[in-house]
Design a protein that fits this description.
It is built from eleven helices and ten strands. The protein is an alpha+beta fold and 346 residues long. The protein has a six-stranded mixed β-sheet with strand order 6-8-5-9-7-10. Strands 1-4-2-3 form a four-stranded mixed β-sheet. Helix 1 packs parallel to helix 4 and helix 3 packs parallel to helix 4.
């Protein structure tokens, strides 16, 4: 070996640390195993058997997403245990809107220098999100890239694949007079955080200060993970009467609900029909936000909307409440276009 011989570790990439991470997360990944999974972590690809998962004539549905600048708060506070739940939720909550059951999930975790404890906590959070949504963590990629990220920074992306039997895709049959059932959110979820961070700057508070709207620190309160609606929504779909679902993410109710409405139909929503989480009142007051801006940027307390047959609305409400959801009858489908609001949000 020459005097100036270099190694990959000298360049900032520790292959042994990456291998150790894989071993650490194998138990968490194993907890997410479900019918259809054919192999564990470590291969060049991941195998999944649709027939073993119970499908006879399946259509595959795929979704990919990240968690936006909510990641910045997780990095700055060191509270990284639930950011993986957000990552999973942003993908699988979208899949279920197509009528699909999420089957498996892959993650991409990139950082400048791999910190084993931090990475383990993040991926354990991803596994927890997968487990809660009946989705297998079947593989992923950990990329250590010196010079690409500042010290302590990392990035996350997720990719989920689901399936449904041919002909079961949603939305389908949405009609004038259909009832809109709103499922409560657990806070801001994973959209609008560039505005959230700007408002925190205006407030003069730090992430470690007490949250004005909740117990605990401001950083912890704003990192409340995105709610997973998968199992509850699928139960409603299988019960019958669900004609469409809308995951309320970036664009809020104003832009996401019309995505499941056919041409010639719009929606009317009663803003007095649900309780808005206190975080939104604080954001609106501190940032001086207009109601229209709130409804176009944030979920405003409604994380998922089900468009349902009026004759099945009460039955589905009971089913969803029994599954642990807070359900509000927030409006109905009407002739026209877009979303019209009545009442006051705050």
């Amino acid at each position: 070996m020459t005097k100036n011989s270099l190694t990959y570790a000298d360049a900032g990439v520790d292959i042994d640390a990456g291998n150790t991470l894989v071993e650490r997360i194998k138990p968490a990944a194993k907890r997410t195993a479900r019918s259809g999974v054919m192999a564990g972590l470590g291969g060049f690809g991941a195998l999944f058997d649709l027939k073993d998962a119970g499908y006879t004539d399946p259509i595959l549905v795929a979704a990919t997403d990240g968690v936006g600048t909510k990641l910045r708060i997780a990095i700055d506070t060191g509270h990284v245990d639930t950011i993986g739940v957000d990552l999973v939720a942003m993908c699988v909550n979208d899949l279920v809107c197509q009528g699909a059951e999420p089957l498996f999930f892959l993650d991409y975790f990139a950082t400048g220098q791999l910190e084993l404890d931090q990475a383990t906590r993040i991926i354990n959070g991803i596994a927890a999100g997968c487990e809660a949504s009946g989705c297998a963590l079947i593989g992923g990629e950990t990329a250590e890239m010196p010079g690409m990220y500042h010290d302590g920074d990392f990035d996350l992306a997720g990719f989920a694949v689901g399936a449904m039997e041919r002909g079961a895709d949603l939305p389908a049959g949405v009609s004038e007079g259909d009832v809109l059932l709103g499922l409560a959110s657990d806070g801001v979820h994973s959209n609008g955080y560039s505005l959230v961070r700007r408002i925190v700057d205006i407030s003069g508070l730090s992430w470690a200060d007490d949250a004005p709207f909740a117990d605990g620190s401001l950083g912890e309160a704003l990192l409340a993970p995105t709610r997973l609606y998968v199992k509850q929504a699928l139960a409603a779909v299988r019960a019958g009467g669900v004609r469409g679902l809308a995951h309320i993410t970036g664009g809020g109710l104003t832009e996401n609900l019309p995505r499941v409405l056919p041409d010639g139909l719009g929606a009317e929503i009663d803003l007095d029909s649900w309780s808005v989480p206190p975080v939104f009142g604080w954001l609106a007051q501190t940032g001086g936000l207009e109601e229209a801006e709130m409804l176009k940027t944030f979920n405003a307390g409604i994380g998922m909307v089900l468009v349902v047959d009026p004759d099945r609305a009460e039955e589905l409400t009971v089913l969803l409440r029994d599954a642990g959801e807070t359900v509000s009858r927030i409006g109905q489908v009407k002739a026209g276009a877009g979303v019209e609001y009545s009442g006051e949000l705050l």
